Amino acid sequence: MITTVCDAGCKEQFTIHNLQQKHLSDGVEKSYFVCPHCQHKYVACYTDDEVRKLQGKIREVRSRFGNRNYDHNQRRRKLIQAFYSIGGIVGWATR
Q1: Cβ distance 53 to 69 under 8 Å?
Q2: Is 95 within a domain?
Q3: Does residue 78 fall inside a structural domain?
């Protein structure tokens, strides 16, 4: 929840509980909220499929780094194993 003031309308303070979504053309979504006093609409953002996919990746990364139980060393070891399993850098292993 976020508290804000309707600066473009009635100047009243109100709390935003959630954003409303409106589906537009070509997979575009408009996210907005409405002042409960004067019904003035404020657009928070527009997103498309690609942006929503990137937002999902950002949430995933944030949850990993915010999770104290996530083993970053284990992830690094898996990446190194994958790197060497495909031969590392071409020509590097033959030197």
Answers
A1: no
A2: no
A3: yes
Distance, CA of 72 to CA of 4 (rounded, Å)? 38
* pTM score: 0.61
Q: Where are the alpha helices (DSSP H) in the chain?
A: 49-66, 72-85
Q: pLDDT digits over 47-82, tens only?
A: 999 999 999 999 888 887 777 777 778 878 888 888
CA dist 33 to 4, 40, 87, Å? Answer: 11, 8, 52
CB of 15 closer than 8 Å to CB of 22? no
Token pair, residue 85, equals 């399993």
